[in-house]
Amino acid sequence: MMLYEHAAKEIFARYGIPVPAGNTATDADEAGAIGGRLGSVVIKAQVAAGGRGKAGGILTALTPQEAVQKARRILSMSIKGLPVKKVLVEEYRKPDREMYLGITIDRKERRPIIMASTEGGVDIEETARRSPEKILRVHINPLTGIHDYQARRIAYSLDRKNSGQIADVVKKLYSIFSDYDCMLTEVNPLALTNGALVALDAKMDIDDNALFRHEFAVEEEETLSGIAKKHGMSYVELEGDIGCIINGAGLAMATLDMIKQYGGEPADFMDVRAGANEEQVKIALRLVSSRKNVKAIVINIFGGLTKCDEVARGIIDVSPEIKVPLVVRLAGTNEEEGRKMLERLNITLASSTEEAARKVIELGYSHQ
């Protein structure tokens, strides 16, 4: 579960990682009042999604009046289908240098990996593609934790002059990663401003299976993954534009692989799981179609506990709301009944995963 930036920064501050002074606001006047106390501020949309800056969800305001105007603009937005209901208003800190620091799980090595780069302020994926030599990668033994020499090595790679401050942040960031059962902990950028380090951004993605161990409030009800989880399903946002609704993780992975094989990019991993009912199918369709970048949607269902005719009823109820091509493959329990129900609608049917992947890409990239 990805935390909002303000929640992650509250945790960072408790562990002694410097963050800008600021507070959250739910309306424009409140944002203006915070701006009046802090002076020049940055106003940031609080949604559990990346790409806020590119979407116009991060703006600078020099006066309280400007803070009111820009907060009002951001609070009227939706970013990747998520309505902005809260903004973080924090003091503007002009960076002299920007660095990247992140910790995630290297599944191949089955241990945490710390990544550091002097190319802060941009997507780490872009840096990896453009200048992979500028990323230092250090694996950590989870049984022993991070050693001082590892923290120093990372710090030296970023800035020798300020290596003491950076090494301290590295160790504290790893403590957060470990204590909160994180899948990802990231600072981008970690900035030097007037010789002092400050985390201008903060990201924490906590393993859903460990949430019961943590008592802090997780604001998940407004996120697509939170809504899916509430209804017994799994949703993971991806970077592509082909929406996917599938039952079963194995079939989902096979479908995503097939989409990529035919030249497409999946927009999500949406598993309605075994036994999905009509209501869950309707919710899944609404969630996946809510993202504006989705060009087409594939529904791939193997009916065991899940009944294909019940899936079809869910699709029929929501189909008038769907504005992009829809490709459906049904197989298994009550398959024939389900297919007959869908044949009456303007929905493309497929008989196999391969055919469904090929058709959804053809329709998605020709439907503009």
Describe, in plain words, how this protein is organized in 3D.
With about 375 residues, the chain is of the alpha+beta class. It folds into three domains: about 20-90, 2-Layer Sandwich (Dna Ligase, domain 1), CATH 3.30.1490; about 95-215, D-amino Acid Aminotransferase, Chain A, domain 1; about 225-365, Succinyl-CoA synthetase domains (Rossmann fold). It has twelve helices and 18 strands. It has helices at about 5-15, 30-40, 65-75, 125-130, 150-160, 165-180, 225-230, 250-260, 280-290, 310-320, 335-345, 355-365; strands spanning about 20-25, 40-45, 60, 80, 80-85, 85-90, 95-105, 110-115, 135-140, 180-195, 195-200, 205, 235, 240-245, 270, 295-305, 325-330, 350. Strands 7, 8, 9, 10, 11 and 12 form a six-stranded antiparallel β-sheet that branches. Helix 9 crosses helix 10 (about 310-320) and helix 10 (about 310-320) packs parallel to helix 11. The radius of gyration is 23 Å and the shape is globular. The two termini are about 35 Å apart.
* Name given to the CATH homologous superfamily of the largest domain: Succinyl-CoA synthetase domains
Shape: globular
CATH class of the largest domain, named: Alpha Beta
Enumerate how many helices there are, as a single number. Answer: 12
| Average of the residue pLDDT scores | 91
Largest sheet properties: 6 strands, antiparallel
**Order of helix and strand elements from N to C terminus:** HEHEEHEEEEEHEHHEEEHEEHEHEHEHEH
State the end-to-end distance.
33 Å
CATH topology (fold) name of the largest domain = Rossmann fold
Count of individual beta strands: 18
